[in-house]
Amino acid sequence: MGQRYDHLSIEERCEIARLRAAGTSIQKIAAALDRPPSTVSREIRRNRGQQGDYKATYAQQQSRARRWTGSKLERNAALLREVLGRLRQGWSPELVAGRLTRDNGTGVISHETIYRFIYAQIARTKNYDWRHYLPRGKSKRGYRGRKGGSPALLMAHRRPISERPEDVKDRRTPGHWEADLMLFKRYNHILLILHERHSRLLLAVRMHSKAAVPMAHTMAQTLAPLPSAWRQTVTFDNGTEFAHHYDLHSLKIQTFFCDPYAPWQKGGIENGIGRMRRFLPRKTDLASLSDQYLLRVFGMANNTPRKCLDFKTPSEVFWENVLHFKCESTSPPSRGRHQYRPIISQCHSREAGNPASFNPRNGNRP
Is the torsion defined by CA of 18, 23, 25, 28 positive or negative? Predict the structure, then answer.
């Protein structure tokens, strides 16, 4: 085995500076540090100041600066363009790193390198638009306190999640859904979101109120055209907007509710809504957005690779491995302002939802 070499520590450099100031010879300094004399001589020659004196702090700074060659993304312009391009599409750094590894057959870059690069740009330039490259748009790393949830309310025919079949947990069986609302700042600006646990597919329906009856009717209309194997259960939180959940029982769909203060029990849809907040923040004026725009945004989400799917996309799983037929809109054409149409990406299209116009520097959205 070859000999292992260690860099001088700041403590050793302090000792060199002290003994050097006292007039100690290089041989005696080396003996005191248990280092070769050539190591001490080279350290003094390379890291002394302009006046010829040796300072420990200056030597430490010089040593670090000499070893630093810049971020991998700063050294590779082509890789930087590819990484930032995929981040603009809403991919997380982990997805970017994983997909590059899958496409190239070997590790190209780690997600931690991407995170450090983004936060380094914020720290150096003080331009907080760089945070828009990240899925959650956080300008600082760290944990944020968890907010409390809504209390459970008494509902007719309510069944707790503990009664849900065990095979739902492993996500291997299709047809198990989670439902929640995506709310916005303006009153009655609402999207009903449905999340399929097996493929992680997201469906969205524009709603005009949180009333329980139209909510249940819309979910039934959205899920009814699917094969029976793809509409087995739906899991809700304890909001009153889902009080008429039992209307889904006519479609042989079982309904279950999370425990009080436990929204994490339907974590798939919580994660999905969190991802969509990057492009549909709470301050969005939903009335100003067309169905085509929403189709594009949710199409982008359904065509983004997921680590939990071995870096396949929800559309690929939903289309290639399960349904084997073209997935299009599942409701009849609009007949008026109160007709609800599900916003569903075409699962076979890999080009859907490519927000090329999104630029984190100016805050543009797709």
Answer: negative
Give the tens place of pLDDT for each residue, 168-214. Answer: 989 988 899 999 999 998 888 999 999 999 999 999 999 999 999 99
Indicate the SS3 state at residue 167. Answer: helix
Nearest residue to 299 via CA among 171, 202, 190: 202
Distances (CA, A) of 151 to 188, 237, 258, 263, 314: 22, 10, 11, 11, 32
Among 78, 46, 77, 41, CA closest to 60: 46
Q: At residue 150, does pLDDT exceed 50?
A: no
- pLDDT confidence of residue 319: 77
Two structure tokens written together for 104: 């190239």
d(C-alpha 183, C-alpha 180), whole Å: 10
Which own/partner pairs from 254-260 qualify as long-range (CB within 8 Å, at least 24 positions apart)? 254/159, 254/164, 255/157, 255/159, 256/159, 256/160, 256/161, 256/163, 256/164, 257/152, 257/155, 257/158, 257/159, 257/160, 257/161, 258/161, 259/152, 259/160, 259/161, 259/162, 260/149, 260/151, 260/152
Residue of 240, 349, 359, 357 lying closest to 300 (CA atoms):
349
3-state secondary structure of 128: helix
Is residue 276 within a helix (H) or strand (E), and if so which, with residue range?
Answer: helix 267-276
